[in-house]
Design brief:
Distance between the termini: 29 Å
CATH topology of the largest domain: PH-domain like
Helix content: 25-40%
Structural class: alpha+beta
Number of helices: 3
Number of domains: 2
CATH class of the largest domain: Mainly Beta
Shape: elongated
Largest sheet: 4 strands, antiparallel
Radius of gyration: 23 Å
Strand content: 15-25%
CATH architecture of the largest domain: Roll
Order of helices and strands: EHHEEEEEEEH
Length: 184
């Protein structure tokens, strides 16, 4: 996982837009093929309309798939005011352990600066006032063991995914602590 892979939009939103784009591309191609093999009793005007719609759907599908593919990942750092982005030299008011196995790494804990009103996770500074919701999610699939992520949702719709290990109780405790600190 690269430095910023855990920052994303809603996963459901990404998947549904990709499926819609692929569906439009496939439907467009199907309509063009239908026009190429038109029935003898079918009117030429109908064939041209169906073919035109197919070409338009195919082009829209290709363009939207290319845009989704080439879109950069947005960083939550853009949410913070410029004054908060200066390196923090003071000690944090609190340190919340997110993943006990990574406690010595920047991804293992969240630093809380109450007087500045920010949370810091892996160098990303998140103003507490910009947080709209904090929850956790089981991100396991049938081929991987259970793993939980803490989801910090920012008011502009972006989500910070913080890996929290395999224990549901510790993930719940982290969410409760963060909600109390951020008053969410």
């Amino acid at each position: 996982m690269s430095d910023r892979d855990y920052i994303s939009e809603s996963k459901t939103g990404r998947i549904s837009l990709w499926i819609l784009s692929a569906f439009m591309l496939v439907m467009g191609l199907a309509l063009v093929v239908l026009c190429l093999f038109r029935l003898p009793d079918q009117d030429m005007y109908e064939t041209l309309v169906v073919g035109g719609v197919g070409i338009v759907l195919g082009v829209i599908g290709i363009i939207s798939l290319q845009r989704r593919k080439n879109r950069p990942v947005e960083n939550l750092e853009d949410v913070s005011p410029a004054s908060v982005q200066k390196p923090l030299e003071e000690e944090p008011d609190e340190q919340i352990v997110v993943s006990p196995t990574h406690i010595n790494e920047s991804k293992g804990s969240i630093l809380v600066y109450r007087n500045k009103g920010i949370l810091v996770y892996d160098g990303i500074q998140i103003p507490m006032g910009s947080i709209s919701d904090i929850s956790f999610n089981n991100v396991a699939n049938p081929y991987l063991p259970v793993e939980y992520h803490i989801l910090v949702k920012v008011k502009d719709g972006r989500v910070l995914h913080i890996p929290a290990g395999m224990d549901v109780t510790s993930a719940q405790e982290v969410v409760i602590k963060l909600r109390d600190i951020c008053h969410v």
